[in-house]
Amino acid sequence: MIKVTLKGDVVKEFENGITPMEIAKGLGAGLYKACCAAHVDGVLTDLRTPLDHDCKLELLTFEDKDGAWTFRHTASHILAQAVKRLYPNAKLAIGPAIDNGFYYDFDVEKPFSQEDLTRIEGEMKKIVKEGLPLERFELSPEEAKKMMEEKNEPYKVELIEKHAASGEPISFFKQGDFVDLCAGPHLPDTSRVKAFKLTSSTGAYWHGDSNLPMLCRVYGTAFPKASQLEEYLTALEEAKKRDHNIIGRQLKYFTTSDIIGQGLPLLMPKGAKLFQILNRYVQDKEENEYGYIMTKTPYMAKSDLYKLSGHWGHYKESMFVLGDEEKDKEVFALRPMTCPFQYQIYLSEKHSYRDLPLRYGETSTLFRNEASGEMHGLIRVRQFTISEGHLIVRPDQLEEEFKNCLKLTKEIMTDLGLIDELTYRFSKWDPNDRDKYEGTPEMWEEAQSTMRTILDHLEVDYTEAEGEAAFYGPKLDIQTKNVHGKEDTLITIQIDLMLAHQFEMTYTDKDNTQKYPYIIHRTSLGCYERTIAMLLEKYAGALPLWLSPVQAKILPISEKQLDRCREIQKELRAAGLRVELDDRNEKIGYKIREAQLEKIPYMLIVGEKEAASGMVSVRSRKEGDMGSIPADIFIKIAQREVETKAK
Ligand SMILES: [Zn+2]
Ligand SMILES: [Zn+2]
């Protein structure tokens, strides 16, 4: 007999060799049906693995992370079996569960089309109906290799060869006519995967390596209940309607081009206009309200600069290096940050305590070599522009200046309507990974405790993350989530006690001695591309009037009103409004529908009556039909809406 500790620390005795599945059965039919896998002493285990010692047993359902993982991984086996039945020549790669679903990679001559996916789904349904048990068996590495060679599965052979070194037996799972190399665990049989859907297929390199074959990756998701699947798919559709990577292209904010390269989006006229609106707004605010001075520094520098700043040692992997370090006398690199450039401006003259704080601001274009698998629309890119700034401050000014950095960014995020979505993260160093960072433990202790004190004074509600600091100091990261729930840093404010020492940046204090200042690295709006992505997702493309690249469209009912429409356009432009005239020879209904699809805030329709009376018939995206009003009244309404930055 063995003693098994169950939920609530209940200890029960069982026959040696009993399986978690049999224990679940004894505990009730509901649990037995819902059960996906087990944790035995914390280790994820298949329900049919016999228990042979006293242990702690936790039965996992779909509600548990590992339970859902097992459920969806089983669905990936069903997918692979269906593909092999329909396309016997397809070669199998791997098929893990992922967040929200699963995928399987296949080597096929022709990538699967939507029709293929529908066909595969049909076959999967049959396999579910067949209720095939998934049975585990083991082979020696030699036998395993031989079997997969006979089945002509080169990717599986490669995986077996990798495992073979350990000499351990290789485990397989068999369901009906299908065998897959796998460690498990799985559901007991295929009938439990009731609700599933193949959501998309895409290309993916074997091992994520662009030198290796391109495979066809089929994504899917699976749930125990049809209603859960329905709910998930609806939410996915909703997310798609907001996904900036879809609507940003549809609404012509940006595009990409293979010949230019991955992670290098092109802002189209609308995107460039939005960029300019944001940029002017930020620069004016920083200069006029927060005392920033502007710099404009080079996009590249010699490696010497980055060696001094520490980027060469800590960040080179992410930089675009121009030249060959072994052969060339001088090697350059595109800048990943502006800090060392603005320091050179500081160093170009002497400073006294009276000059501080100095707040350098720059609309700065940066380059970072992100892995190609990481690219996503405007959110993860290789070239981007940020509202970057470095504040050179005396220790007695640090708290006040930090506070103002946070205040500035909060004002901007409030104006943009993004403030409610933000969360705050205090990113600290990892003392066990000293090589990643500059400075001494004492400096880190000081910088982090200073930052903590400031954050607590400001009553910032933050979480803490170890190992997320910059190499030169701790950060306050202001985080946001995209429509798919993926978290990214939008804004960061950092305290740096190290780099002033590295660069010999000093100021003459009251007592005539040379002192090192503190440096605050910060952004106010963040990276323009990412913030534009967040705006498009937040407003589903229907941006507030003050941010809309085209604020109004004038639609003449017939050619006869064209002259009057041109006059109105001139008046609106003179009043600072961004307005287009749709002078195409199309039906008015068609023009209205198009302007609606473009999410234009106001349509000004001009017919014979309006043209004669100086009126425009206004259709608002928000309010609907507003009737006919004099053109100059419309101008006042729109100007007011822009000034108040109404959402
Ligand atoms: Zn498996
Ligand atoms: Zn910096």
Report strand %. Answer: 25-35%
Low-confidence stretches: none
CATH class of the largest domain: Alpha Beta
Cα distance, first to last residue? 68 Å
Structural Rg: 31 Å
For the biggest β-sheet, the strand order reads 16-20-21-28-25-24-22-23
* Distinct small-molecule ligands in the complex: zinc ion
**Which CATH-level-2 architecture of the largest domain?**
2-Layer Sandwich
Q: Could you explain the architecture of this structure?
A:
Helices cover 36% and strands 27% of the residues. The chain is globular. By secondary structure, it is α+β, with helices and mostly antiparallel strands. It has 20 helices and 33 strands. α3 packs across α4 (114-130). The chain folds into four domains: 2-61, Beta-grasp domain (Ubiquitin-like (UB roll)), CATH 3.10.20.30; 66-235, Threonyl-tRNA Synthetase, Chain A, domain 2; 266-299 and 353-538, BirA Bifunctional Protein, domain 2, CATH 3.30.930; 545-643, Anticodon-binding domain (Rossmann fold, 3-Layer(aba) Sandwich). β7 (97-98) and β8 (101-107) form a beta hairpin. The strands form eight sheets. An eight-stranded mixed sheet has the order 16-20-21-28-25-24-22-23. A five-stranded mixed sheet has the order 2-1-5-3-4, sandwiched between helices. It binds zinc ion (ZN) (2 copies). The site of one zinc ion has 4 residues, from loops. Its cofactor is Zn(2+). Keywords: Aminoacyl-tRNA synthetase, ATP-binding, Cytoplasm, Ligase, Metal-binding, Nucleotide-binding, Protein biosynthesis, RNA-binding, tRNA-binding, Zinc. Its EC number is 6.1.1.3. GO terms for molecular function: ATP binding; catalytic activity, acting on a protein; metal ion binding; threonine-tRNA ligase activity; transferase activity; tRNA binding. Pfam families: HGTP_anticodon, TGS, tRNA-synt_2b, tRNA_SAD.
